[in-house]
Design brief:
The structure is a homodimer. Chain A is α+β, with helices and mostly antiparallel strands. Chain A is built from 11 helices and 29 strands. In chain A, the strands form 7 sheets. The first copy, chain A, has a 7-stranded parallel beta sheet with strand order 16-15-14-13-12-11-17. Chain A has a 6-stranded mixed beta sheet with strand order 1-2-9-8-4-5, with no helix packed on it. In chain A, strands 18-21-22-27-24-25 form a 6-stranded antiparallel beta sheet, with helices on one face. The longest helix of chain A is centred in the middle third of the chain and has 22 residues, at 327-348. At the A-B interface, strand 4, strand 8, strand 9 and helix 7 of A face strand 4, strand 8, strand 9 and helix 7 of B.
Chain lengths: 611, 611
Amino acid sequence: MDPLKAIAPSDFPFDPSTVCGLVYGGRTIVRIPLKPDEKLYGLGLQFQGLNRRGKVYHLRTDHYSRGNERLHAPTPFYISSAGYGVLFNSPRYIDIYAGIGNRKDSPNLPKIRDRNTDRNWQAQPLSDSVEASVYGNGMEIIVFAAPSMLDVVRRFNLYCGGGVLPPKWGLGFWHRMRSLASDKEVIAEADEFKRRGFPLDVIGLEPGWHSKSYPCSFEWSPSRFPNPQDFLNKMKERGIQINLWENPYISPNASFYKAIKPYTGSHMVWLGLVPDFMMSQARDIFTKQHKECHLNMGVSGYKFDEVDGYDRWLWPDHAVFPSGTSGEQMRQTYALQIQKMMMDVFRSRNQRTYSLIRANNAASSAYPFAIYTDHYDHRGFITAVVNSGFCGLLYTPEIRSAQSGEEWVRRMQSVCFSHLVQLNGWFSNTKPWSFPEVEDRVRDTINLRIRLLPYIYTAFAHYHFEGIPPIRSMVLEPDYTDSERSENQKLDDVDNPYAEAIREDVTDQYMFGKSLLVAPLFVGETARTVILPHGKWYDFYTGDYVGNGEVITVQPSLDRIPLYVREGAIIPLLKEVEPIALMRCPIALEIRHYGALPSQTVLYDDDGENV
Amino acid sequence: MDPLKAIAPSDFPFDPSTVCGLVYGGRTIVRIPLKPDEKLYGLGLQFQGLNRRGKVYHLRTDHYSRGNERLHAPTPFYISSAGYGVLFNSPRYIDIYAGIGNRKDSPNLPKIRDRNTDRNWQAQPLSDSVEASVYGNGMEIIVFAAPSMLDVVRRFNLYCGGGVLPPKWGLGFWHRMRSLASDKEVIAEADEFKRRGFPLDVIGLEPGWHSKSYPCSFEWSPSRFPNPQDFLNKMKERGIQINLWENPYISPNASFYKAIKPYTGSHMVWLGLVPDFMMSQARDIFTKQHKECHLNMGVSGYKFDEVDGYDRWLWPDHAVFPSGTSGEQMRQTYALQIQKMMMDVFRSRNQRTYSLIRANNAASSAYPFAIYTDHYDHRGFITAVVNSGFCGLLYTPEIRSAQSGEEWVRRMQSVCFSHLVQLNGWFSNTKPWSFPEVEDRVRDTINLRIRLLPYIYTAFAHYHFEGIPPIRSMVLEPDYTDSERSENQKLDDVDNPYAEAIREDVTDQYMFGKSLLVAPLFVGETARTVILPHGKWYDFYTGDYVGNGEVITVQPSLDRIPLYVREGAIIPLLKEVEPIALMRCPIALEIRHYGALPSQTVLYDDDGENV
């Protein structure tokens, strides 16, 4: 059955006559009504907050810059708590006024108050609609209605082609080498993982594998990788995949520099050519070299860097491309173009990949790429993990370094409960065992992640076939009662001259797969509160009952990231940990059942590699 | 003689055939060549840095947000060290790539380096041109050439109508009341200034003078100002001007709400109507009430607030205005519209004003408004003072509060050597004497400012008639040797993954009038270096020789802001300090002459009030 049709039909969610469109002042403008109590979620890979209502978003692709508007993934899709979603399907920079900006002709105006004397005066009176605009003449708007917010997300993901089903190895442990590592160093590092008993499934090579980088040659460095085929064979014997870093900006030392030059933009990035991947000629030239020099030799994926920002080294919005695409359109969609191009190459080989990309946008749920980002605030990273599931995005809150063993463990715990478990030591050269006092805890954490492979792989199968994100904000859970609260702030003539209130959303816990609730701790914390949805919940580690529809306070030791399981949940785990690519059937499983309620579950399996 | 013609003619500064223009992707794009050693200055009221080369500027009007792009005054005008200036005369948001963004067809490409191994690899290779673009079809570009950078600035200012000559009282001491002060409180405060021997020329009333604010009624509060004419008379007797705060967003309680409603925009600000001042009907209705209820009664100026940003409470870029002006164009020019409108009202009364505004743009040098801003970083404030003179802007680094007496003195010293000396206690309710341990020092500082009135008024006359900014960056001085330096930074995978260098410009000293060099100190400092231009320099206070074209280190006490005077300079000071509006001829002067060189000077004077 068509999975889209399996979602119950819903009426169009609002009176279409209240939707307005207008072309004025060079912009296309649309207005969509809001009810007073609606909350809005989504709008890309956001590092702050959850409910988007009451803010302005200038959505554009860039590095993360501590705000809500320049984002690695500025997906112009929002989900309303009233049970519908709206996609502004435009490759332009989009300005979205999410329930703010009152019009004088609105029939639902807030009460006007006197700031001089009325303590209830508001700095930002909410409005009765979402207004969005782009430069240019036209924009497609797609409305997704469904019985619940989760079904809206599913409908959106299925409409976009369903979710990614990564190769199994992609869900294992990823480690990235320091930038200038040689083949010998990589092999020694892999063997060190084995010697110390740490799982390892993917090694990422950073810029130094290229003969030249920034701009890139895409050719193996003759000094650091004199015999790449031999190197890749040795990795394969060990069950370890090789992932190659690159940015797509082409050095004169690339073999295809001259061939691709006519199909590149007016401006360069780090003095490298910028391929116009809207042209099949550019795609063909680029992928032919990649197949010959990487994929045919055994490379399993890429990390596409620098496709986000900053402005000062990417092409300007006024850049000219031979396909006629504007610099702005190219900026908003470049990561999508690369993902589509590379996915097609892997598919043509009947090979799955799981790769990395530094930017994204709408309709990417089927692309086998996880985003990695700038920034290194642990809380912000977790907020992004929580928000990723609204918009069909995968994200890794990668770990790079830490100030202490405690921080190292806490970060390792949370990356192990994310879409992609990556240690990125390109600069810090950190290893899982770099903090000897917590080496055992780190190993246990990674082992738990690997042992959960059957459960996680099934979660991705649900994503693939039914559009259910493997990581979900609590507000997408049916039995969850939202507990955001708004706190008034003191007036301050430097930092808060309008005494604006701050809204506190729940951005530090989330669902992982069907039945696991993850509540990470941050450095310095020995206790935290966890909001449990209605229904009985159990401690993952002990099986103890912990609560039902309530706020609990937990004091876990440093050993454990708090994990809770629904009544009746069945969690399958591997009995043994080994490199995923070397696993052979039959595989021994441990099956855990929580609570007393009889239940059943689906355990999805396939060969884990082919398309 | 036409003062523009008094500036020596110059050739067009570059080969016109190297200037490119293009309309592509909805944008108008222009390219202007740069020589390798050119430095660029200007681009609005910048709070960071001096030389603009090598950065990207998305110039748009907004509150200050710690970057270079959303600015209170995003003037799209730059001055090149090669002796020319360029004005992008557009009411659009303008993106400017100031010597960055290399094109593949450039004949002057930097050397491509391998980041893997070449330590001289650069994160941001500089380009050979400035590229600017706006959305829309067309943009006027005006090039100003002159023998020196100062002459370029003069030419720009004179082209825009010359500089402001404020009324004399505008150059005195300004004090703002707490927001809800009553008439009695204002009178008592004025008398307290007199009792304590502090000069006072202007009192600003904050939102509480309105019967309603945010949005505003523009009517006197019957409870706080029951008899405004009587109040204004009492102020006049004391020689004190009254300045009224307002934002231009119209409350239903304004007498002209219904009349102006047809001439307002689609969106509201704090639920107040937004007048479309591009329509004469809106201007006439707005100014008629202001004349009747404020100016005819004796009000001498305004503080126009909230005409900058933030997005979340100003109208959106997609707002519709009855004149057909776009929301974006309105945003970029609203402060200019208000200044022009109010200046015309004052001129029609043969009355000068000196007023405040929170935003600005190009061609405002003739408007009698100084910018005041968000933000309260003392160093950033001084940087903005230094940068203001490039673009025909006046700015007050107003003081509001301080953490210590030392900070209070240091901030007071620097605001006393700015375009407008304002203490803004709307929230903090701070007075000049709020730090008793430094009360005498603060009084001395303000007295010095007032005593310098003849010198400062003459400096503004040079601005008015010759376009010479009263405050100038050192780089505009003919005998100054620029000493910017670039410092390499360490690679850091969180904050600086490309090891970008930081350029250190001289942003903490400036020329004030013809002959005074000001070198403010910041809290915590007991010494600083000062870069002296070539020629002999003397200490303002002692007359001692201090150096010639060299870097000196000075250790001034807390009493004094370091001030240095050129050889031969003649500085006129008032002998006595009293409210400027009560001064009557003849006025006794003290004339100081520095160094040994015989010289002459111009001392400008007029009635100081009429147009």
